[in-house]
Amino acid sequence: MNRIIHLSLASMVFSLISHGHHDVDHSHDHHDPKAAIKIQRNVADFAIELYKILAARSHGENIVFSPCSISMLLSVLLLGTASNTHAEILNGLSFNLTHIQEDEIHQGFHELLHQLTHSEKDYKLDIGQTLFLKEGVQPLQTFLDKIKEFYEAEIQTTKFQEPKEAEKQINDYINKKTHGKIAELVKDLDPETVFVLTNYIFFKGYWKTPFDPAFTQEEDFFVDHNTTVKVQMMHRTGWFYYYFDRQLSCTVLKKDYNGTAT
Q1: CA distances from 258 to 118, 202, 211, 242 (A)
Q2: Which of 1, 31, 55, 80 is deepest in the core (most CB within 10 A)?
Q3: Serpin domain spans which residues (predicted)?
Q4: Which pLDDT band, with edges at 50, 70 and 90, does 205 fall under?
Q5: 19 is a domain residue
């Protein structure tokens, strides 16, 4: 097993803040579970297409990423883009406006975010978007209002002209939100940066059927073709749902966590 690639679009830097925006219907203040269902297929299609691209470039390395986080982050950008950029993001996310309205896209992610963060507390899930904005830059207020309304985004003023200070602010923030799991998200920031849009996700769950610690034992873990290390591995015998996808050449195993949101 080769080393794992941690894909993070949280550090993507954009300069779209002063571009056009699209009006979104604000009449959907209630929570509609069906709204999230409308975007599920698109998020799944996006995940598969992104995986294919990454796998083709990975040279046999493992790939770890969160399709929900990436698609949600790019959907935030829809609220601040126009013309070709807007169309390219929609296409990249597998959304066709002849089948789904843009308002439904944002409402779908809003409902998905609500379901994930306001469900029963059998697990811990922290997910969010934060816009680190250069001092003195004033985006359209409608853009700021919409990213707060639909994506519960936070906005922080940042001194990008002082790159080290800006890096510390962003990294300390993400480090806290991910409970120390991501210590250095950004580095070598350009002092001309206008803003950084980040997404973070932290999940800690408990198995519906736990592993018995008595069966945990030390075994070989293959880091790559040349490196093997000893690690503690859990074991459990049982009946499981699994599926082999010939197109992706991968096996999917279903193992439930406590709770229903997962």
Answers
A1: 15, 16, 13, 19
A2: 80
A3: 48-262
A4: confident
A5: no
Read off the pLDDT of each residue in 214-239 and give the average, rounded to a whole number. 90
Same domain, 105 and 181: yes
What is the CATH number for 112?
A: 3.30.497.10
Domain that holds residue 249: 213-254
Q: Which of helix, strand or coil describes residue 103?
A: helix
Q: Looking at residue 245, what is its pLDDT?
A: 87
pTM for this predicted structure:
0.77
Residues 6+ apart with CB under 8 A from 243: 251, 252
Give the span between the Cα atoms of 93 and 156, in whole angstroms.
27
Q: What percent of the chain has a predicted confidence (pLDDT) above 70?
A: 85
Same structural domain for residues 74 and 186? yes
Q: Are residues 128 and 250 in the same domain?
A: no
